[in-house]
């Protein structure tokens, strides 16, 4: 299992000019003919004449070089590499290969999902289709002909534009597609199957008429309208905000049931996990609708950031992913509520990226080594990567940032580039030295910034000191100070913001940094890292009373939310230590009051309240502790929730009532906010555990008029009693067993139940006729849901949870390496548990490590965890 190192990068020996592919699709036997025109890389000084290409595990039937047949001893092909010695400067190579997409359960390369043939080539899947220099810095023009049975596969799609189509003997037909843009092979795609579609015309800003199409299985086509609306929003938004117009005549999206990732931005032919396309109010929650908008936007925005300008090598992944996540975040923020979007993104970053940054998978946003690239599609590359772009955006401001983007496309359109190239245009546009900022890309770990204050009542000077520290890790033994943007304000005792906007951005470059504010009234509070201006852990010296004040009065929404989070976190920490010392559990009056004030505020934005008043999830709370006690965290959270529900019962009941009058099918911010707050209030009430509140939830479940409410109530019912869990699960199943995406919810909710019998129940569900290990969404719902979102049961003291998951990883690894490796991540933080669990989790990792035939994907995760 060799590591690939950034420092070993060398340009390719051979480049490809044209790629002509012919796919002859037949059941159990797909023949691929690939014709490549290759030439020696003119930019390379010591040119090699040996052609080395990547190849997967398939049969090569014939090879011709400039029309001459090559005998099998004129080339080497070992299922990894394809080598032909002594090549001329320019030549045409034709290879014929035999594939069996029906047997491809790894879902990379060409595979078949519920009757539909499709491809997934990023990162290194194209080599499973034909021998090729499978690296993103080899860009070529593609022509693709697909031949298949007319009845089984009436629809035949590839990148670009259809240029030729016709009938063939034996009920077969063909379509030829041509993509006018050069692209790396990871953006190649093909789809063939029995699909329906909806289409919509769109006139771009310059007056060009384009067609947008979304394909799905015939029974799902009615659920594609939301996705189409989102696609139009995305095309328009990219024109308006980034001045970027679509470049082909046709944009196609296909929804597929079995898909390893969320979606894939193949040029002109996006392939999507059905979960991010199909929706209607009866089957999709508000979160699902929002996720569809986000992912549709994300893949569309890749057309420029990723496709037109692509990556020199896979180490640069964040160049396209961080930037495109930033773009999709801005898209959803411009279209919905900016502060609610920001809160959701920061929650994800803290819950998932911060732990990644402090565990065995810690890597810089631009990693410098990998064994299997698939393992580096991480929170760090995506979400932290987006935060780095956001920091640049703050330093430059929107206007200069957009000038930098314009320069990026001017200089690098059609090229495969690096993070340095991006930073250079931003430095140029912003007249800014980015040398220190670049450390964010090369240094791993989350810095902690400690904020301290001192106030002199005589001079009325408030000094605020920031100190940064990043703990050392496996990547760097010593960390350099980072260039950190700190957006801040000062809130005076009346709740007024007293520093002018132009003074609000502080640039921290050293280990410590002090700012002094003149003429500040006594009792003024600093509000730091507004809108979460940098991806750091913030430690302040604010008291509970001061936090409660900021929670009520800060003019920055994000910091109002964050003050509430900090209050919750402090309360949980106090409760957990009381549990550890067997002390009675109390809840501070200060928190209850702050909560009450917020919930009674009639003028407040309900979507915001639904976020601010939710106690952080157990996973997020775990990050507060050096040694994680899952049971104590669970008990503390439960206690806090029940205490709030008991103390504020009338207020919760009132909220349930007041928020109950939204239009069940409307996706307006107000209606989404109403549902969110109402379901939060129901969940607080349910924590009381009385028959009468159970009755409220059950009735709300029966009365639900959309999936948001039905799912929320079902989830709550599965936390109440075994009887209600059984009853609600049976009803939900009867109603939805025909719909795979809703069935994923059914599996998930049972997997995350805190009730005592959850593990046996999950084991039973694995044998349910609707469960299968071959569908990634189903695995993520049940197995991954249990391992990652049910800490109490996954970490059961018996070790049964670990044992169950270890077995599943081994079983999955024979089917789908990428999904098995993702699941293995549930053991990453084994060192953060008590000694008993530490031993058991380590044993699981050792069992995996010792297993013969372990995939490279799982090996990399296991070996990092054990290192
Ligand atoms: N670029 C794809 C990710 C492909 C995952 C490969 N293992 C989706 C996206 O980020 O847009
Ligand atoms: Zn992406």
UniProtKB/TrEMBL annotation:
Domain Aminopeptidase N-like N-terminal, first and last residues per copy: 22-187
A family per Pfam: DUF3458
Cofactors named for this entry: Zn(2+)
Keyword Metal-binding among UniProt keywords: yes
Domain of life: Bacteria
Peptidase M1 alanyl aminopeptidase Ig-like fold domain: residues covered: 445-540
Enzyme type, top EC level: hydrolase
GO biological process, one term: proteolysis
The Peptidase M1 alanyl aminopeptidase C-terminal domain, residue ranges: 544-867
Record EC number: 3.4.11.2
Record's function text: Aminopeptidase N is involved in the degradation of intracellular peptides generated by protein breakdown during normal growth as well as in response to nutrient starvation.
Keywords, in A-Z order: Aminopeptidase, Hydrolase, Metal-binding, Metalloprotease, Protease, Zinc
Domain Peptidase M1 membrane alanine aminopeptidase residue range list: 228-440
InterPro entries referenced in this protein's UniProt entry, alphabetically: Aminopeptidase_N-like_N, Aminopeptidase_N-like_N_sf, PepN_Ig-like_sf, Peptidase_M1, Peptidase_M1_dom, Peptidase_M1_pepN, Peptidase_M1_pepN_C, Peptidase_M1_pepN_C_sf
Family affiliation: Belongs to the peptidase M1 family.
Native source organism of the sequence: Desulfotignum phosphitoxidans DSM 13687
Protein known as: Aminopeptidase N
Any GO MF annotation of the entry: alanyl aminopeptidase activity
Catalyzed reactions: Release of an N-terminal amino acid, Xaa-|-Yaa- from a peptide, amide or arylamide. Xaa is preferably Ala, but may be most amino acids including Pro (slow action). When a terminal hydrophobic residue is followed by a prolyl residue, the two may be released as an intact Xaa-Pro dipeptide
């Amino acid at each position: 299992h060799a590591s690939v190192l950034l420092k070993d990068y060398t340009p390719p020996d051979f480049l490809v000019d044209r790629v002509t592919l012919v796919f002859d699709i037949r059941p159990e036997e797909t023949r691929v003919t690939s014709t490549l025109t290759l030439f020696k890389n003119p930019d390379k000084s010591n040119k090699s004449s040996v052609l080395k290409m990547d190849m997967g595990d398939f049969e090569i039937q014939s090879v011709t070089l400039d029309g001459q047949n090559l005998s099998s001893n004129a080339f080497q092909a070992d299922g990894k590499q394809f080598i032909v010695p002594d090549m001329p400067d320019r030549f045409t190579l034709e290879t014929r290969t035999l594939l069996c997409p029906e047997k491809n359960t790894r879902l990379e390369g060409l595979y078949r999902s519920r009757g539909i043939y499709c491809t997934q080539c990023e990162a290194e899947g194209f080599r499973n289709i034909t021998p090729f220099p499978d690296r993103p810095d080899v860009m070529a023009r593609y022509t693709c002909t697909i031949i298949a049975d007319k009845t089984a596969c009436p629809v035949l799609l590839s990148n670009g534009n259809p240029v030729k189509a016709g009938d063939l003997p034996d009920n077969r037909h063909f379509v030829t597609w041509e993509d006018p843009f050069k692209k790396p092979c990871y953006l190649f795609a093909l789809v063939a199957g029995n699909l329906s579609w909806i289409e919509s015309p769109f006139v771009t800003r310059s007056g060009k008429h384009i067609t947008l199409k979304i394909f799905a299985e015939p029974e799902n086509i009615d659920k594609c309208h939301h996705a189409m609306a989102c696609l139009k929003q995305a095309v328009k938004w990219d024109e308006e905000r980034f001045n970027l117009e679509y470049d082909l005549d046709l944009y196609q999206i296909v929804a597929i049931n079995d898909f390893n990732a969320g979606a894939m931005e193949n040029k002109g032919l996006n392939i999507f996990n059905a979960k991010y396309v199909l929706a209607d109010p009866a089957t999709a929650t508000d979160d699902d609708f929002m996720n569809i908008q986000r992912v549709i936007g994300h893949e569309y925005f890749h057309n420029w950031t990723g496709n037109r300008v692509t990556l020199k090598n896979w180490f640069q992944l964040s160049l396209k992913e961080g930037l495109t996540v930033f773009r999709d975040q801005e898209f959803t923020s411009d279209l919905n509520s900016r502060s609610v979007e920001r809160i959701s993104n920061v929650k994800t970053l803290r819950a998932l990226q911060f732990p990644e940054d402090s565990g065995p998978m810690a890597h810089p946003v631009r990693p410098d080594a990998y064994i299997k690239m698939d393992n580096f599609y991480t929170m760090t590359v995506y979400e932290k990567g987006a935060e780095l772009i956001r920091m640049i955006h703050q330093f430059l401001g929107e206007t200069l940032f957009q000038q930098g983007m314009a320069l990026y496309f001017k200089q690098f359109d059609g090229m495969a580039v690096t993070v340095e190239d991006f930073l250079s245009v931003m430095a140029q546009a912003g007249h800014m030295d980015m040398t220190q900022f670049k450390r964010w890309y090369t240094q791993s770990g989350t810095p902690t910034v400690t904020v301290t204050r001192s106030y002199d009542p005589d001079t009325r000077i408030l000094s605020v000191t920031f100190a940064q520290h990043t703990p050392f890790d496996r990547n760097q033994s010593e960390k350099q100070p980072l260039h950190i943007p700190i957006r801040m304000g000062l809130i005076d005792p009346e709740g007024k913001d007293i520093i002018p906007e132009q003074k609000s951005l502080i640039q921290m470059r050293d280990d410590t940094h002090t700012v002094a504010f003149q003429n500040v009234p006594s009792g003024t509070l600093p509000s730091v890292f507004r809108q979460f201006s940098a991806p750091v852990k913030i430690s302040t010296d604010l008291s509970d009373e001061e936090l409660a004040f900021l929670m009520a009065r800060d003019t920055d929404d994000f910091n109002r939310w964050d003050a509430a989070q900090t209050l919750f976190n402090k309360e949980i920490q106090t409760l957990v230590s009381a549990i550890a010392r067997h002390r009675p559990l109390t809840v501070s009056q200060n928190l209850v009051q702050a909560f009450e004030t917020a919930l009674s505020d009639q003028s407040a934005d309900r979507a915001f309240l639904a976020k601010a008043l939710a106690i952080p999830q157990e996973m997020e709370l775990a990050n507060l502790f050096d040694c994680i006690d899952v049971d104590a965290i669970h008990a503390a959270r439960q206690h806090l929730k029940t205490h709030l529900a008991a103390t504020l019962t009338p207020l919760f009941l009132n909220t349930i009532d007041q928020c109950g009058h939204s239009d069940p099918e409307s996706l307006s911010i107000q209606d989404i906010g109403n549902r969110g707050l109402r379901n939060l209030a129901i969940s607080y009430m349910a924590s009381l555990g009385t028959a009468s509140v159970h009755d409220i939830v059950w009735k709300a479940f029966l009365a639900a008029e959309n999936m948001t409410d039905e799912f929320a109530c079902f989830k709550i019912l599965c936390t109440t009693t075994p009887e209600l869990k059984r009853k609600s699960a049976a009803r939900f199943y009867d109603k939805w067993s025909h719909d795979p995406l809703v069935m994923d919810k059914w599996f998930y909710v049972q997997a995350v139940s805190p009730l005592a019998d959850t593990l046996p129940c999950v084991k039973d569900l694995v044998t349910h006729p609707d469960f299968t290990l071959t569908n990634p969404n189903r695995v993520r719902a049940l197995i991954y849901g249990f391992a990652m979102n049910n800490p109490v049961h996954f970490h059961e003291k018996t070790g049964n949870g670990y044992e169950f998951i270890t077995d599943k990883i081994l079983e999955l690894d024979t089917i789908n390496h990428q999904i098995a490796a993702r699941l293995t991540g549930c053991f990453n933080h084994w060192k953060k548990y008590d000694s008993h669990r530490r031993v058991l989790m380590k044993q699981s990792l050792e069992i995996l490590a010792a297993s013969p035939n372990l995939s490279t994907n799982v090996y990399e995760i296991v070996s990092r965890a054990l290192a």
